[in-house]
């Protein structure tokens, strides 16, 4: 298992963290860049902080046999496994698992076969004391319409997080939300506010922004209404 530490580490940055500014990032437009651990790369969508992030949203890709050194999450962690199997002392999480690790949690993640996760750091409220695990492959999805199924992942005063499975031909009505809203395309492609987005696309819109979504081929989209706990 690869555990070597690289000499380079993340310098302090503030990137895409202004919640009043719309951000749209098309899948494939950003590279996976090195982390301090050999075999672990990340594609950053937003980040405040250095290697200990005060806020971050990323895709992280682990090569087969790679690992990350033991570390804590002062602001908690939320992730969904996109490919492969992501492991730590709490278990082995295959594609489709959704996990929330509370504020102050620690782990030493690794993978045998390789994996990729969509992960959000330092956005879990300090009022959430427990770990949360959901296998979205075995969960009960709710039919909103013939072309739309939804699966709530987490609901609180600060956020409403869900997965949305859209079949080919889906067209939403215009929606607005009184909080910031964020989308990540897990699979397929969708047209959001007139622009087509593929897998790995991430976007965030300020509160009260009109949003319409359509898809010709089908898509699975993560949606979070609300910004979680904002730490500066």
Description:
With 232 residues, the chain is an all-beta fold. The protein folds into two domains: 13-135, Jelly Rolls, CATH 2.60.120; 142-225, Jelly Rolls (Sandwich), CATH 2.60.120.10. It has no helices and 20 strands. It has strands spanning 13-15, 23-25, 33-34, 40-49, 53-62, 71-73, 77-88, 91-94, 97-101, 105-107, 115-121, 132-135, 142-145, 148-155, 160-166, 181-192, 195-198, 202-205, 213-214, 219-225. The strands form three sheets. Strands 1, 3, 4, 5, 7, 8, 9, 11 and 12 form a nine-stranded antiparallel sheet that branches. Strands 2, 13, 14, 15, 16, 17, 18, 19 and 20 form a nine-stranded antiparallel sheet that branches. A hairpin with a 4-residue loop joins strand 14 and strand 15. The chain starts with 12 loop residues before the first strand and ends in a 7-residue tail after the last strand.
């Amino acid at each position: 298992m690869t555990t070597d530490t690289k000499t380079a580490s993340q310098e302090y940055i503030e990137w895409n963290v202004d919640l009043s500014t719309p951000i749209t990032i098309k899948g494939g437009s950003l590279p996976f860049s090195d982390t301090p651990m050999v075999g672990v790369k990340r594609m950053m969508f937003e980040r405040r902080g250095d290697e200990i992030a005060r806020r971050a949203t990323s895709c992280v890709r682990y090569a087969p046999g790679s690992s990350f050194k033991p570390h804590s999450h002062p602001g908690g962690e939320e992730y969904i496994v996109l490919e492969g199997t992501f492991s730590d002392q709490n278990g082995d999480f295959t594609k489709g698992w959704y996990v929330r690790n509370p504020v102050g949690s620690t782990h030493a993640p690794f993978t045998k076969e390789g994996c990729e996760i969509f992960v959000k750091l330092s956005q879990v409220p300090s009022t959430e004391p427990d770990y949360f695990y959901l296998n979205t492959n075995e969960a009960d999805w709710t039919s909103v319409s013939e072309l739309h199924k939804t699966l709530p992942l987490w609901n609180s005063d600060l956020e409403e997080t869900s997965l949305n499975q859209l079949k080919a031909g889906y067209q939403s009505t215009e929606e607005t939300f009184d909080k910031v809203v964020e989308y990540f395309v897990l699979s397929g492609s969708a047209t959001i506010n007139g622009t087509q987005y593929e897998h790995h696309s991430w976007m965030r819109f300020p509160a009260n922004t009109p949003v319409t979504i359509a898809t010709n081929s089908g898509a699975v989209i993560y949606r979070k209404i609300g910004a979680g706990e904002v730490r500066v």
